[in-house]
Every structure is written in structure tokens, then in C-alpha cells.
Amino acid sequence: MRREIPLIITSFVGFLFVIRFFIPHEPFASMENTASSWIQVIKAFAIWLGILNLLKISGEKIYKKDKGWGFAAIVIASFLAISIAGFFFPFWETRTPGDSFIEHARKFQYPGTSFDWFYTYVYTPLSSTMFATLAFFIASAAFRAFRARSFQATLLLLAGFIVMLGSVPVGNALFSWLPQGWQVSDIADWIKNYPQVAGQRAIQIGIALGIISTSLRLILGVERSHLGGEG
Amino acid sequence: MVSLTIAGFLTLGIMSFVYKDNPVYKLCESIFIGVSAGYYFVSIFYQSLLPQLTDKIGITGELSDSALAYYRETGSLASPQWFNLIAAVLGVMMLLRLVPKIGWIARWPLAFVIGSTAGLRLIGELQTNIMAQIQKSILPLWDPQYIDGSLNMAASVGHSLTNIVMVAGILTGVVYFFFSKEHKGVFGGTAKVGIWFLMVTFGAAFGLTVMSRMSLLIGRLDFLLRDWLHLLG
Amino acid sequence: MSLPETPTPRTGQDFWERLAQLDRRIIFAFIFLALAIPLFFTIRQPIAVSPEGRAYFEAIENLPAGSKVLLSFDFDPPSSPELQPMAEATFKQLLTKNCKLVVIALWPQGPQQAEKALAVALRDPQFKDLKLEYGENYANLGFMAGDEVVIQKMNSDLPSTFPSDYKGNATLSLPIMQGVKNYKNFDFIINFSSGFPGTREWVQFCVDRSGSKMIAGNTAVQAPENYPYVRSGQLKGLLAGMKGAAEYETVVGKPGKGVSFMGAQSVSHLVVILFVILGNIAYFASRRKK
Amino acid sequence: MRKLFLAALLSTFFLISFSFVSAQTPPAPVTNLTAKDTPSDKGAQVDLSWTASPDEQRAENPVIGYQLLVALSSDSPFVAVGKADAGASGATAKDGLKNDQSYYFKVRAYAADSSFSESEVAGPATPTGQWWNTQPNYIWIFVGMVMLVGFILYNIRKAGKEELYIRPIAGINAIDEGIGRATEMGKPILYICGLGDAAQAATIAAFSVLGRVAQKVAQYQSRLIVPCYDPIVFSICQDVVKGAYLNAGRPEAYNEKDVFFVTQDQFPYMAAVNGIMLREKPATNFYIGQFYAESLMLAETGFQAGSIQIAGTDQLIQMSFFIVACDFTLIGEEMYAASAYLSKEPEQIGSIKGQDWGKVVFASLSLLGVVSALLEHKIGFFEMLKKVLLAE
Fold this sequence. Notes:
A: 3 domains, 11 helices, D: Immunoglobulin-like, Rossmann fold, 3 domains, five-stranded antiparallel sheet
């Protein structure tokens, strides 16, 4: 029950998606469609699972007064704030005439709703800034690692150097004495269009083969690590 | 204005991390974790579960009558509506992972997702990243270029060299990823050329990324200086 | 694969060695200034347009007037500095061609980003008199979970994949969606993406399976991964990051934020490059000593 | 008032005369209409093709679109079954068609003023579903799939019986050294499985490597910290680590609190892991699995904390960051190979062998194609081969 049924489901669904590619005839098309709708629902629940897990852990931390339980409380408070804004706003915001309650509720992220306020003034600055700090880290990584310590490292350095210069207009301006067609941006374009594409293709083929064989093992049921050890 | 100030302080709070880990950063981080969890919690409900589940079953169906009529008419969704209840059951099974004793039941829906991913990937990778790439890797090593009807030597050599670089890069790269033979002798040498190509690939990818990361910070600075503090015109 | 060891810090270093291991916060400060100061000035610089960027523009330009276009917004606010200017300019070009626009999203934040970009485009005076109507000229079908499965499913049935739009209307009640069944009913597909699911999945499950024509706007990070698809013709054009946006604005002839931010980009790149050179000088100088 | 009346009169006159003129010139009909069952489909559709009306081009009152009409016999009334834009030379009729029923078709060319003309009747055509997609592209993919699947299955079988050779991968030693270093320093090891879910090949490889690392850690009696991103991956990691401690004969040393779920959101997750690095100062960090933008920040913070860092991913862009910022990086397929090498499972070793065979075929086909492209005009055989390969 615990291992066999999941294995059968994986094989069945995997095989269906493969065979559907080659067989246009019904009932395969409809079966794939139905399976796809279900997966959309399951994936949505999987995201909820992550969220509930987070709440559970934070709750435990607060309950046991673990180190940093105050921050866990802030996590739960901000979760509640935005969720209430998302789910309960239909009660305090005026309904457009003619809308049913559910139609009204579905406008939860319209401009001007409290949910949109959280999105624009809390979620957006936090997530954007978190991502933006990468600008600092990429500079320090370049400084530290782009050193001509060996032939390989020099190739890495040169490719990075030329592409960096070629990405901004100032690169061409600095080396404007280079002949037409051999400007820094031209060389950078050449590098990213040819040697880089070649290298990527080689990597991609290897990865594709790896994914194919892993998928095959999953469908055949010989790869079982995703089921975990127990039961 | 109050809103912008809150956004501004949150921005500065996160940015302070690059100097040093500090309590203000921890505070912003906790708010972030909570708000983003809540954001997904709400969006998933309205944008995925309502249309894919309750609308199709008919609980909130007054909105999608025409959609349902469409299904009945074309039969493109061959299953009757109640079939979608199975999806709901599978979804709830997923959540049972939270209960330690019966957590194993989540393997059923998980198997569903894994099966579909495996099936789609098996064909997708083969089609897009292998078959299509073989076709694209077949390049003429001598690629004559004609300008106004006559052979242009410089352009021909240029194009041919480029093609040679492409083919050499792909093939030596593939040799590097060959695991059945040790990297020795000629084979090892070829693999080494493959590494050089990989190095150029990584260097170029890194170089291109710098732009991207700088863009992100420019976006934030634009917000701080223009939208919040009105220092920019 | 590995690069040679990074020298480990020791005590009693000379100037070059200390420079080689500069505190990264000094670099951080320089980067901050290099990005902030240029924002106060307008730096005029010529912008060279890459072939992929030009192809992107021309692909849209060559669409017959009134074409039906599907746009997928697969990114979130963190990537908006790169992708939002592209999306805005693309909307404008599509609207001047009187195209009918259907927006979908595979990332939950996508629909809101699309609304914001569309609002900017519609504010443009040239579209004021056109009386563009929701449902008739454009529609936003919102977000759907399921990643590549969603792309795959739209090959056979788009309306059942997105049963209702972002505002809660039934998709099939929108005039613009009349007769739309799958990708074949769209003349063109445009994808703005910053990760997974994104352009790679669109090529795999939409372009390769339905034969649709597609162009994409990517973050500069993601673009290298997708250049091979442009070379092989699976993508008709590709805009890469803020520079892509600036190129596009240049080709369209309407400089916007993309162009104006390129000044800060130039200066910050120069700073990074100078630090790399400095690092190498320090490295060789300290090595010669030994 | 009089002016208005005059204007109304005039415009009415023009309208009438205009429609009069154009009504007299309905567009030329489409010609050469053919109807055929759509190949390689699930049925219930028919492909129509035609030569467009020449009046698409005329300046006045041009053809603006076509309407497809269907009937059960050539003389019964026709009903609309779809439409096509001007410029089209074919369309698929599908609204309401049923399998195994013959249909007759006509196409109406519409001019801007709604005048129209009808083509000759085409048909009968009988829509049926096909049991196999016969487009050349699909056949080649099928051939490729059968071949690859055969390679992999054959080698898995073979690996079950005898030992197959896989060359030593440089990263393997780095993994062992990393564990040794942690033991010497008395500091913990941090293991990150990436952001992928349990269905991703990279995550599955990460489980294998984790099993090996955990077993060594259990033997050497050092500490292993595994913060997880995905709730499912988290519970699998728990099982893997617990199992490895059991295998090493030290189940009592397994500390449940060291394998934990953080949060399923990229940047908050990264922020939390960064915090762990700065506080615990692990001797060695492993990043194996699917990584995105967080890769560089993790690696930079890890460097700051003084850790040795070993990475492996199948995300192209992140590889470049790992190469730059980590001490050792397993590139793409190397990660799968390392996982096979460490696990010693015949399924994995056999897969790697099968993949190698696939690469040989890939390289040979490309080489053959390149040579034939070079000799394009000289040897007919190669040209033919290339045509076949390119499915021209």
C-alpha cells in the first residue's frame, strides 16, 4: 500500500504522458487533459503544504519559547495580516452593484484593495531588495575569482571581461579605435553566440540525457529514492 | 506617503544586510517570510483552486456556466464534473504530510506529480535538447559566402572558422562529459579543449549576469531616490 | 571542476597582498555609488542593437495588423526592473499594430505585473482615442499553478486551462476569446520570464509541439540559456535584460527607462572591471615578491 | 437645420450608391478547394485547403475573410463550421464534426461590405482519429526514444551482472576531503538540496550524494546540518540521513533537529541559510541540486564564513557562479555521474553507461552530418543522409 500504489501511479501517469505524445487518438488526449487539471490542483495544495509547514514550525517555536521565538511571532503576524486582507476584504470594501459575493471576492487584488497595498508596499520592496543585494555580491565574486591564475582561469576571466565590456555602451566608446565590425560589443556578441552556445549545447545534451534516464527509471519504478526509506 | 515610507524603510532594512547581519534585517526578513507565505496562500486559493476545483465541480459555478456548457458541448473534458473531486482528495492527501503518523499517504498525489513530470521531461528533453540540437549542430565547415555573386574570401573564412569553432566546441564538450573512458592521451587532450570551451561559456554567462544584477539594484535605487525621496526629476 | 585555490588570508601582509584580499564592503560601497550617482545625470550614449533585439522588434513589426497575441508573464517584482520596461514597450508596439492581446501568467505575481505594464501603455496619449476595451482588445486571464503542465495543456484546450479571467469573468464569455481553442488560434506568442517555468519550458512544450512562433524577453541572467534557441530558430527574437529593453526602446524610437538606466549600467560595469584589473595587478605583484 | 438636412441627404445618397456599386461586384470565389481528414490527430476535424480569392488584393471592397461551410451531402443545406482570415490558404474545420461520418465542404469569401461568393463543393471527407502520429518529426523522436531507452535498459541489466567502468570523477575526492576537513576541525557540514521538488533529476541525484555524505559523517562522528526548502524533499532527506546513520551502525547519533524544514520561498530560505552559515561556521558546504539566483549569495556568504564549498547543479547559469565562487563544482551531468559513482547502484551506473552510448550516437550523427555538409555537392549518399537527418 505505502510503496506499491505510488509506484503504480507514477508509472501509469508517466507512461500516459509519454504515449500521448505519439498517439493522437482518444481516449489518450482526454486522459492527459484530466490528469493535467488534477496536477494543477495537487501543485496548488503542495504550495499550501509548504506554507502550513512553516506555520507549524513557527507555532512550535513560539509555544516552546525557543531562541528567536519573537521573530517567529512576527512571521505569523504578517502572514495573518496579508491573509486577512486577502480573504476578508469583501466584508469591509463596498461591492460593485451587480456583483455576487464571490465575484466581489475574486477582485481581491484589484488596485486599491488592502491586499494590493501589501503587495505593492510590503511584498514588492522586500523581495526586490533581497534580490537586488546580488549586485553587491556579484561584484565581490568577480573581484575575488577573476584572476589569471591558470590558463583555464584566464579564459574564464577574458570571456567575462569582454562580455561585461560589450554589454554596456561605454565598452565601445573606450575602444572606439577598433575597426568597424570588430568593436567590443561585436566580439562580445560573437562569444555569446558561438563558443558560449557550443559549450552550453554540450552541457545541455549531458543534462538532457541525465534527465531522460532519471525519468525513465522513475516511470519504470526502479528509482525509488523519492519514496523515502520507511514503510 | 506613509505607504512609501514603509516601503522605503523595508528596502533599507534588507539592504543593511550587506554591511552586517543585524536585528533590523532579521525583523524585515521575518515580515518577508510571513507576507510571502500569506501572499501565496491567498493567490493560490483564488487563482488556482477556485477556477480549477470549485468552479469545475460547480460549488462556485455561477461564474463558469459558459465554461461548463463548453465542456458539455465539445466534450473536451471527457470526465463529468464530480471527477474533479478526486483532485481535491489528492490535494488533501498532500496536506496530510503534516500529520506524522499518516504522512505516507502524501506519496499518492506526489507520485502523480512525479509521474507527469517524468513523462513530460522524457519527451521534452529528447525533442528540444537532443533531437533539435543534433540538427542544429550540423554546420558546414566550409561555408562559402557570396557577395554580389562572387566568392568573398574573407567572409567565407570568417564564417567557416565560426562554424569550426561551434562544431569543435560541441564535440569536445561532449567528450568531456564522457564517463566510460579515462581522460588520458588524445582523448584526454580533447576533453581538455572541451573544458576550455566550458570556461568561456561560464565566463560569458557570468559577464552577462552582471548587467542583470546591476539592473535590480538600479530599480531599487530608482525607487528610493525618485519615488520615495523625490530627489530625481 | 575547480579553479586553483584562493589564497588564504595571513598576517603580516604587504600592500599588494592586502589589496588582493580587500574587504568586500569597500567594493560594495563603490558599487552603490556607481549606481546611485549616474541616476542624477542624463548620460547620452549610443546604444548598439543586437541581432536578437532587432529580430524581436521585427517579428512584431511583421505581424499583420489585428493579429491575436498571447503574452505570458512569468516573473515577479524582483525582476521587474529588467522585464517591466520591455513589457511596457512591447504592449505599446502591439497596440499600435492594433493587435488583440491575451495575457496569462505561470507565476502568481504575473497578472499584477501585466496590469501595471498595460496601465502604463494605455496611458500613452496615442492610444487615448482608440477606445481600447477590456475583453474586446485585451484580456488578462490571470495566474494558474501547474508550471509546464499548464503550457502543455493549452496545446489541446486553452479555455479549460484558464476557465475564468483575472477579474472572475468566464473566459469564454470574453469576445476576444471567441473561437480560441489552443495555440493555433494565436498568431504569435510572447513570453517574459525570469526563471522556471519560463522560456525554456515554453519552447519545449509550446513551440516544439504546436509550431507556434514565439519571441521572449528574458532577464540578462536567463538569456544565455536561451540564445541557442534563437540560433536554432525555435525563438524568433530575444531581449536580454535592461540592455535588451534599451535596445528595443531605441529601435522603436521611444527612449524610456531602459535607455536612461544604461548610464548607471555603464559606470557600474566600469567599476567592476576596474576592480577585476586591480585584483589581477595585486595578484601578480604579490606573486612576484614570492 | 437646412445644412444638416442636406448633409444627411448627401451621405445617404453616397451610402446607397456605394453599397449599390459594391453589391454589384461580389468577390471572386476561392478555387481548388480540397477537403482531407486531418492527419495525425484525435479525429473530428477536416483540413481544408484552397487557392485564395484574387480579390484579397483589390483596392476597393477587398476580401476580408472566409467562412467554412459543411453539409452531410452535396445538395443539402450548408451550415457554418468555422472561419479563416484573409490571406489564409487553408483551415481546419472542427466545430461539431463527428468521426466516421462523411462531410461536404464549401468556402465563402466575404468582402468588406458582406457580399460574398461561394466555392465549388469539396468532399466527401471523413474525419477519423489516428492511432499513431506519423509526422516525420514524431517518428524521429520515437526512434530516438526507443534507442535511448534500449541503451539504458541494456546497460542497467548488464550493470546488475558485472561491474561497469566509470572513470573516477575529480569531485568524488573533493567530497571525501570535505568531510575529512570537517572532522579535523570539529565543525559541522552543511548540505543543501537546492530548490527543486522531489521529481527533479537534480534533486534525486542530491539524495544519493546526501546518503553517502551522511554515512561518512556518521562514521567520522561529525555533525551534518540539512536545512530544506521543499516539504516533501525535507521528509525524504530525513529518511535518507536516518537510513545512512543506521547503515553506519550509529543510529543513536542521528539528531532529528539537524534535518529541518525552513520555508518554501526562495529569498527567505536563502536568508535563513546565510544566517546558519554565519552562526555555525560550517567547515564544508555542499550545494547539490537545482539552484537559482540564490546560488551566488549562498556561495559568497559561505566563503565569508571560511567554508570549503562543493557544488553541483544542472542549472546552466548557476554553474558559472558556483565555478567562480566555490572550491569545487560538478557540472551538469557530472553531478548525475557522481551520484551513480557514490551510490554504486546498478540502475544508476547502467544509466550513465546508456547516456554515454547516447553521446556516442549524438557525436557520430553530428560528425557524419558535418562531413556530409562539407561534401554536399560531391557525394549524393551523404546529401541524402543529411536530408533524412534534417527531415527536409
